[in-house]
Specification:
Layout (H helix, E strand, L loop, with lengths): L13 H17 L37 E2 L3 E9 L4 E2 L4 E7 L5 E10 L5 E6 L11 E7 L6 E6 L6 E3 L2 E3 L3 E2 L2 E2 L2
Length: 179
């Protein structure tokens, strides 16, 4: 015969209540606390600076202002400043890449001054395969009061439009950051 387990009616729901309470508390501890709403918009997650990447041997300074260096691929984004991701008017971006055959040339180099909201947009060719590297576009960005950044945008293949925000770090003045 099996052993029958009896439950005391006074304690029947306590185990379930304790377990539910522990799960609820654990869940609440995982939810980030957001600051009060400002103008009806919740605070954005922390702004992470864009990683630097190698300039490579094919950078050429003083390239022309352009909105197009080819066709078929739209690259757009914003130039932003850490730590709060504010747009950086007065900043600029440069880009250089290979042509569709994988050769660097002057036709695939450009520069843009960003709009007051930090936006930039250009049309280009999909970068060709460069020996030993995935398809990529080099970027250099700068804005007043922020460190210059060189980075790269890596492509997966087949993209027609890519959004690429670039986040710069403030320059330092002495031992403290500029405020």
């Amino acid at each position: 015969m099996g052993t029958e387990r009896k439950t005391d009616p006074m304690h029947a729901g306590r185990t379930t209540s304790y377990l539910f309470g522990a799960i609820l508390v654990s869940f609440l501890l995982l939810i980030p606390v957001l600051p009060p709403e400002e103008e009806g918009v919740l605070a954005a997650p922390p702004c992470r600076p864009t990683r630097s990447d190698m300039e490579g041997p094919f950078y050429v300074p003083e390239v022309p202002l352009r909105t197009s260096t080819g066709s078929g691929l739209v690259i757009r984004g914003r130039l932003l400043g850490a730590p709060d991701c504010r747009p950086l008017p007065g900043g600029w971006i440069e880009w250089w890449q290979t042509d569709r055959r994988g050769h660097y040339d002057d036709a695939h180099r450009g520069r843009q001054n960003v709009a007051t909201d930090g936006a930039y947009r250009f049309v280009t060719d999909f970068p060709g395969v460069y020996p030993g590297r995935p398809p990529h576009i080099h970027f250099k960005a700068k804005a007043p009061g922020y460190r210059s950044l060189t980075t790269q945008l890596y492509m997966r293949g087949g993209e027609k439009e890519v959004e690429f925000d670039i986040v710069l770090v403030p320059e330092r003045q002495g031992p403290q950051e500029k405020r």
